[in-house]
Amino acid sequence: MLSDNIITHAGGGGKAGKAVEITVGSNAVAQLLVRSYERYLNKLDIAFKDVNNSPAALFYKGGKLVGCQVFDINPHTDAITNIYFIAGRKKLQGLQNDGFRGT
Fold first, then answer.
1. Angle 72-69-24 from CA coordinates, rounded to 5°
2. Angle at CA 3, nearest 5°, toward 40 and 70?
3. Where are the domains of the chain?
4. What distance in Å separates the CA atoms of residue 39 and residue 41, rounded to the nearest whole number?
5. Any idea of the CA torsion for 58, 59, 64, 67, to the nearest 10 degrees?
6. Tens digit of pLDDT for each residue in 14-40?
7. What pLDDT sits at residue 101?
8. pTM of the entire structure?
9. Which domain of life is it from (predicted)?
10. Beta strand pairing status for 64-73 and 21-24?
11. Domain covering 2-96: architecture
């Protein structure tokens, strides 16, 4: 399911000066996903939809969108090659309005 060379990109959540965090490799990404789920995501409601023509998981707390994971999938192998974690308020606002604005 995960490409051997998968890369995740996590933005600064809209905070100025916060660097993008990148994780590379299926083992490291799998560990990151498990930690994220155990610490935060298991407490949230999850909905699935397409964002920019890619599958995505949207995370809600009390009906408010608080995060999103967008998945790039290789059409030849069906493996996930990239995961983009989105938490910036302005970007999430575009999703909440049913149209993603930004990357």
1. 60
2. 45
3. 2-96
4. 7
5. -80
6. 555 556 788 999 999 999 999 989 998
7. 39
8. 0.80
9. Bacteria
10. unpaired
11. Roll (3.10)
Q: Which two three-digit tokens encode residue 40?
A: 């935060």
Return the H-helix or E-strand segment holding 68. strand 64-73
Structure tokens at 70: 């967008």
Q: How far apart are CA 29 and CA 67, in angstroms?
A: 18
Over residues 26-76, the pLDDT tens digits come to 999 999 999 989 998 999 999 999 988 899 999 999 988 999 999 999 999
Question: Strand pairing of 2-10 and 80-86?
Answer: parallel
Residues whose CB falls within 8 Å of the CB of residue 54, separated by 6 or more in sequence, listed in order: 70, 71, 72, 73
Token code pair at residue 59: 């995370």
Question: At 98, which amino acid appears?
Answer: D
CA distances from 60 to 24, 32, 42, 71 (A): 27, 20, 11, 18
The residue written with tokens 């910036």 in the block is 88
